[in-house]
Design goal:
The structure is a homodimer.
Chain A: H1 6-13, H2 17-24, H3 32-45, H4 51-57, E1 63-68, H5 77-93, E2 97-102, H6 110-120, E3 125-128, H7 136-144, E4 149-152, E5 166-170, H8 172-185, E6 191-194, H9 201-215, E7 225-226, H10 232-243, E8 251-254, H11 257-270, E9 279-281, E10 298-300, H12 303-318, E11 327-330, E12 333-335
Parallel strand pairs in A: 1-2, 1-3, 3-4, 4-5, 5-11, 6-7, 6-8, 8-9
Antiparallel strand pairs in A: 10-12
Helix pairs in contact in A: 1-2, 1-3, 2-3, 5-12, 6-7, 8-9, 10-11
The structure holds a DNA duplex.
Domain HTH lacI-type (chains A, B): 4-58
Organism (chains A, B): Nitrospirillum iridis
Protein name (chains A, B): LacI family transcriptional regulator
Amino acid sequence: MSKATIYDVARVANVSIKTVSRVLNGEPKASPETRARVMEAVRSLNYTPSLSARALSGSRSFLIALVSSGGVSDNAMLYVTELQMGAIQACRAGGYHLLTEYIDGGATDFGALVETLVSTLRVDGVILIPPLCDDPKLLALLAERGATCVRVSPTLDGTADQNWGWGIDIDNYQAAFQMTRHLMDQGHRDIGFIQGHPKHAAAAQREAGYRDALFDGGPIPERLIQPGLFTFNSALPAARALLEQKRRPTAIFAANDSMAMAVLSVAYKMGIPVPGALSVAGIDDLPAASVVCPPLTTVRQPIMEMGAAAARFIINRTAGQVGNYLKQVFDHSLVVRESTSPPAEPAAHAAFSLAATPDFR
Amino acid sequence: MSKATIYDVARVANVSIKTVSRVLNGEPKASPETRARVMEAVRSLNYTPSLSARALSGSRSFLIALVSSGGVSDNAMLYVTELQMGAIQACRAGGYHLLTEYIDGGATDFGALVETLVSTLRVDGVILIPPLCDDPKLLALLAERGATCVRVSPTLDGTADQNWGWGIDIDNYQAAFQMTRHLMDQGHRDIGFIQGHPKHAAAAQREAGYRDALFDGGPIPERLIQPGLFTFNSALPAARALLEQKRRPTAIFAANDSMAMAVLSVAYKMGIPVPGALSVAGIDDLPAASVVCPPLTTVRQPIMEMGAAAARFIINRTAGQVGNYLKQVFDHSLVVRESTSPPAEPAAHAAFSLAATPDFR
DNA sequence: GGATGCGGGGACAGCGCTGTCATTCAGTCC
DNA sequence: GGACTGAATGACAGCGCTGTCCCCGCATCC
């Protein structure tokens, strides 16, 4: 009970340790009877193989690292948490384990990180999340050491994706496009937008979706578009800038939920009723999104699924199955809650609205 | 560059591998010059020891597991995330690594979990968070296998703390007591309370703090106390029950922030202005607490610190230093934001309020 | 002078697995 | 019939470290 080894199992099953190893690793050469005998011994001894020994002698470590750039205890961290949960689930299913590493916001000592990951831990793969997943230095180092990596919501769009790892994402363009259309369907035309972090590709894609949905390539009133960094605080000034205009937008679409919450907060302080006088929408469907007042209309990404897929990819790849895609795109879905509604004075801004709703394309 | 081993270092430094090992592990027997020579070789080769090899041959694995019972993607998960960040920081400082394991909400197959932790991973310690840290079965299994464990915010109060591991907490009683007094200082007497999860000791302690502060052992109008489970959803009915009373409380103190947010949400839907007609307070200072409208008055716990302390304890303990305390209590602090203010009609409820503010004790 | 102690350092045997290669025993083929 | 094939299994050598034991040389002590 204390600590059974493979030797104990071999003795009990009356086979060699190599055969035990084969059975445990699902290798082909083993007769059904032998297999059964070994499994029985394993069960009776309550045997669990040692990860260290397996890692030391074999080529797999059964370890996956999730690297994020922590530091800011922002609400958006829940994104990481959920991704992590998905990854852990997939790990457990595959006999793997998840290591979590943070790298300090400003720190760029990627060398040490990579060395630790590759040399010390010998992880079988690394899951990178924004903005780390778009750092060329980190990616280069990782690639140089031959690390398998999966990038969640990466910047590069397949084309230039020079074996910097596999990507996982949703269609940010479509998500933003659809949300914008949702607002337009409700009658909004004066829709403000708060941009995401300029270094993060999802930000650009979301903005493009918004622009195309609203203006369809036409002229763009820049006053409607304000800069943000995906964080709550970064969106406060943007929201103010939008809401203090004489002709205030009837809706604000923030590039993510954290920033949408900032809009809610500013509106609250300015005494602007939501959704009465202002509709607000975001993207991400953070757990907090359904908890704020009013609950936020947003776009849900299957974050847990994505985390699980990332881990599974690494597991399969290490096991020899090579996926030949560069990127997997997950479905998103509109979650309409109470923060959006038709604008108060439907035709008041008619002069500004477009003649007709452009077609989807 | 590719993968230096201890042999390479030994060769370059012109010493035996054992000496390299000694230097790297800070063992005493090594002259300063030798030490310097070895370190130089390590640097020049960019050497990093293999964790697996160390774990396999030595008695430490340099791994710490953080076990939480995931599943619900509640806002309160940020608590876990922050704890994790603290733990990771401490790990990095000590050359350790943090593994995160979730156990499904309902699952009680602790046997397999413990086996994995102890046998497969051979972690040097386990950090347990509520409600897992209070599960007797899990604790017994862990103790049986001799695992070092640190329980965050555990139930047992030192006394009965039968070597079930070290504990980390804040003084929940005082935190609740002080928050209640804060509300009373503002003039509130009719203060509702939403209880935490009955299986979690912090819940009981917080309730005791509230009761003692408000009633000082006197009669307790039970209508003021409603059950909750620490989750947002669980507090919705409680908040409704409190706010639909003819004589509505002028303040509601929820046993944690998630539930306080539920109060905010219900008040919003009922059209009760906060803090105008109702003050709301919580405990935890979740990141979301400062983001909701209005920002929540709450009690901050140094969660990251606590996570770091937990990891450090395990690291030190494994290194031989035995801490002889059973529990470490961290300081908390009141964070007064905008969700609390003096009640609208100061003396309206005088008939119900206590004659005088009882003394602190 | 021999016993003793101690700082400094090496030899060596594993830790518990997996990879590689060898071996055995049926069947198969011409 | 003898060489050949392939499935099932075992022998054995590490993987890269740490723990244990041992050795050397020098100072100390009666």
